[in-house]
Amino acid sequence: MESMVKKGRKMTLADSDTLTRHLIRYPNGTSDMVKEVGRVRRMHVFMKHMQEAVESVAKGGDDPFSNHIVGGQVVRRLTPQGRAFWRSVVHADSELLELCEGRRLNPWLRLGVHVARKWGPRLRGYTTHADTDALLVPGLPKLLARQFRLIRYVVSRKAFQDELKGLTRVARDMYASCAELMLKVLAVHSRLLSMRIDLYFEADAKLISESKAARLAIDKFVRELGRDNIIDDVLAYIVVREDGLDRCIHYHVWVAVDGHKHRDGFHLTEKLGKYWIDRCIGSPVLGSTKNCWERRAEYEHNSLGLLGPGDEEMLRGLRKAIAYMCKLGKMPHLYVKKNMGRNLRKSQPPRGQRGNPKRGAPRKAGNDVSVARRVLLGDLAALKHARREAELLPQDRRAAGVGAKAA
């Protein structure tokens, strides 16, 4: 349980809800009530380890086993790559694999789950008593080597690489469009009140979170938000749809209002949540929200509160928040299914100041957004290059000259 507690934060009731209680009786007659990680938490751990293992196999050149001389005899042992892959496959039980059914996994996970579903039952037959290593018996090295070759072959295919690049490009384009919106808003408005809220479906509504009725609910929220019918003086908003293992379809929302007129970000965010539950969903049983303002002191770089075009610390927080919403630089385990429409919805950029031109010498139009541009967009090209380099396989890196010494 200790590993589940985030730094500087105690476990909440929502965290403990993912734990399952078990009564263990010992031979001496005593018993203990213990908490075991529930299936949703185990699924997150499984996905993380599976993706890391598949990426390691694809990008590395090691074999699953290595030979060692012990007492004059050759002994085969699992390499670090082989051990990580082995554990991720043999621990993929049927309950975890069922949670993946019908979900749109990222390419790495989809490949790993396919291997685990097809070869997991056979590989588990070689498991040791401790269930942490493999029995070194004839046939297993050949079987594992076959899986390594399969993974490396699939990942090297153009279709797989194109899918990775496409997902990365979509995330980068989403972030860039949101950052450009921020710059245009800050060029006109010198003080924003920045807020964030997450919108969820609950209970039976989760089962229909992909339905037309659910889409109509978020359509109404976005429409009325843009018309100032929920809160006043909205200057910009960003709404991103996401799929979660337990949450199913949910929405991350960022809103900015005029900071010269408003200060109480907490209660304005509460009004957004109340409108979602009461007017869009219709029942607190079927909908819920998370007011991010409540935890703003815990963020390393906070972006909630008054924000100006020269506030570098707040802009760093805004960059981190928008990058998280757009999944920039980090591929999520699950994606929203295709053919469900736009996953990003945002307000139109401001049209600028209206009215008669001011008297006197011409002045520079708008606020200086050079600091905001540097923070929000300055290293986007460098991130694009680093991401491309990280995705290259060893043979592609050599062909591209990445990492080669200068002549």
In the predicted model, the low-confidence regions spanning at least 5 consecutive residues are 1-24, 353-358, 389-395, 397-407
Secondary-structure content class: alpha+beta
Biggest sheet record: 6 strands, antiparallel
**DSSP strand content:** 15-25%
Total domain modules: 3
The count of β-strands is: 12
Q: What Rg is obtained from the alpha carbons, in whole angstroms?
A: 26 Å
Mean pLDDT: 80
Helix content: 40-55%
Give the overall shape: elongated
Cα end-to-end separation: 53 Å
Protein name: Inovirus Gp2 family protein
Region (Disordered): 340-370
Structural descriptors:
407 residues, alpha+beta, 3 domains, 44% helix, disordered N terminus, disordered C terminus, Inovirus Gp2 family protein
Structure overview:
With 407 residues, the chain is of the alpha+beta class. The chain is 44% helix and 18% strand. Helix 2 packs across helix 5. The protein starts with 12 loop residues before the first helix and ends in a 7-residue tail after the last helix. The model is unreliable at 1-24, 353-358, 389-395 and 397-407 (pLDDT under 50). This is Inovirus Gp2 family protein.
